[in-house]
Amino acid sequence: MSSFFxxxxxxxxxxxxVCDMLFVSIVYITLCLPIVTIGPASTALYYAVxxxxxxxxxxxxxxxxxxxxxxxxxxxxxxxxxxxxxxxLGFDLLYAWGLTEPDSSKGSLLMGIxxxxxxxxxxxxxxxxxxxxxxxxxxKQLFKAAVYMSMRHVHFTILMIVVNVAAVVIxxxxxxxxxxxxxTVALVNSFMMxxxxxxxxxxxxxxxxxxxxxxxxxx
Length: 219
Prior knowledge:
This protein is mostly helical and 219 residues long. It has helices at 10-32, 38-54, 60-70, 72-99, 104-134, 139-152, 154-173, 181-197, 208-211. It has one domain. It is globular and about 65 Å long. Mean pLDDT is 88; it is low at 208-213.
């Protein structure tokens, strides 16, 4: 019985991770409300989930806000641009949908074009913030890298889109899931995203103790 209450017990470790995911998801949702902070918040969420939940390095809030501050400017710029892109796409899709009844051929053509563009934008948005959390790039370089990776690894891109859509569907039918959904999606997607990132990571120069670098992402 004493071993059950040991903090090293796998059950307690799992509960601790679930609590971390719950708390960081709530912080993430709160920081997304001002809209302009969606980008840095998404960047920080991915970084903290992978480093703390998966790699068990550091503390969830410390790593989250460290990444949030470090990547605030670039994350905010990209987040605002993506928000505008989604708004424009939303109106475009509504316009195309409205044309399907009076002119089904024209409406269907436009709908197909806009859905294709929507796929590209969604794919880009799934990659760009994790890339920002890991690589030191300019905004222009981030755009190029996100487009390239999302198309180069399109099979993983589609799977991650499915994960995001599944989370939205679950929230619609079970709203309380929203309070842990952000971290859950980041965690599930990270198993695919990290496989992709390893292809572009520089090789480790040696153990962290020798180089003085925290190379947790290379493990």
